[in-house]
Amino acid sequence: MLTPGEIAARLNRLVFSILLIGHRKCEPTWFQPMRAMRHHSFWLIVKGKGTFTINGTHYPVEPGKLFFFSPGMLVERRTDEDQPIEYYFLRFHYTETYEEKEQWISRDAADSPFPLQGMYSLQNTPQFIYWMEQLCVLWQRRGHMTAMRRKIVLHEFWLALLHDFRAQKIAGDTTAVIELTQDYMVQHYREPLTLESLATMAGLSVSHYSRLFKKVIGYSPIDYLTHLRMDRAKELLVLSDFRLKSIAHSVGYGDEFYFSRMFKKVVGVSPREYAKRHRGDPVR
After folding, report:
1. What is the dihedral of CA 185, 189, 192, 196, to 10 degrees?
2. What pLDDT does 253 receive?
3. What residues does CATH 1.10.10.60 cover in the chain?
4. In which region does residue 217 sit, left (phi positive, over 0), alpha (psi from -120 to 50) or beta (all else)?
5. Model confidence over 218-228: pLDDT tens digits?
6. How far is residue 122's CA from residue 93's CA, in Å, rounded to a whole number?
7. Separation between Cα atoms, residue 3 and residue 1, nearest integer Å
8. Which of 188, 225, 224, 251 is nearest to 271 (CA)?
9. 135-187 tens-digit pLDDT
């Protein structure tokens, strides 16, 4: 199996076209005989049990399993009569297109195997159900902006999948767990994060998490979060004409006066003074 980083590198080079999205509850007698797949697709199992046979290998079907199918795969699918399968599915095309050394390179799917094949077990199934529900709703709508939103949500799904794989891979590796929460703060610094929630995410006590975070990163968790927010605030103060209240909200502070005090404490000058000094400087 490829590492999460290797999968991310491959997915970053792909451009997707969604062909079909749906949600299905199978009848107790549901059975699909062996057939060769014609399209790329994935199925997220949310209820029930059964057995899928892929190229001669039998896989157990149960909630939390994610199956990827590619053209040419020989697949047989069967549900358990007492616990019929319920699943979401998405069928897609893709092409590989990326820039390298100022040259654009393109390959069709036949020359660029998809990085995910067969069965995967998920650690946090509810978040994937959420993304599939969003995709199903968007599939019922039309319009260019809706099509763009579908593509964004599909990429959110891929990103969530990579985080899930990474969380499984680093279970027990405390240094990597710290880096995982660090990445989470970078992506979610606008949200009301707490030391308790970050420690829970890492699977550590608050005191152990705080000590380990400072040892690995060099800041306490809250100091690191504060610096993230202030770095973004500095960018906004220099590059935009947003009101101070808007900037405070955009970096996670509901109170602009508290934000101003924290900014001066970290940066050494008030937000207004910082903007006055740096706005209009050439961007390098």
Report:
1. 20
2. 94
3. 171-284
4. alpha
5. 899 999 999 99
6. 23
7. 6
8. 251
9. 999 999 999 999 999 999 999 999 999 988 887 765 556 777 888 899 999 99
Looking from the CA of 34 toward its CB, the CA atoms found within 13 Å total: 7
Ranges for all domains in the chain classified under CATH 2.60.120.10: 4-168
DSSP track, the chain: ---HHHHHHHHTTEEEEEEEEEEEE--TT-EEEEEE--SEEEEEEEE--EEEEETTEEEEE-TTEEEEE-TT-EEEEEE-SSS--EEEEEEEEEEEEEEETTEEEEEEGGGS--S--EEEE-S-HHHHHHHHHHHHHHHT--SHHHHHHHHHHHHHHHHHHHHHHHHHHTTT-HHHHHHHHHHHHHHHTTS---HHHHHHHHTS-HHHHHHHHHHHHSS-HHHHHHHHHHHHHHHHHHH----HHHHHHHTT-S-HHHHHHHHHHHHSS-HHHHHHHHTTPPP-
Q: Looking at domain 4-168, which CATH architecture does it have?
A: Sandwich (2.60)
CATH topology of domain 171-284: Arc Repressor Mutant, subunit A (1.10.10)
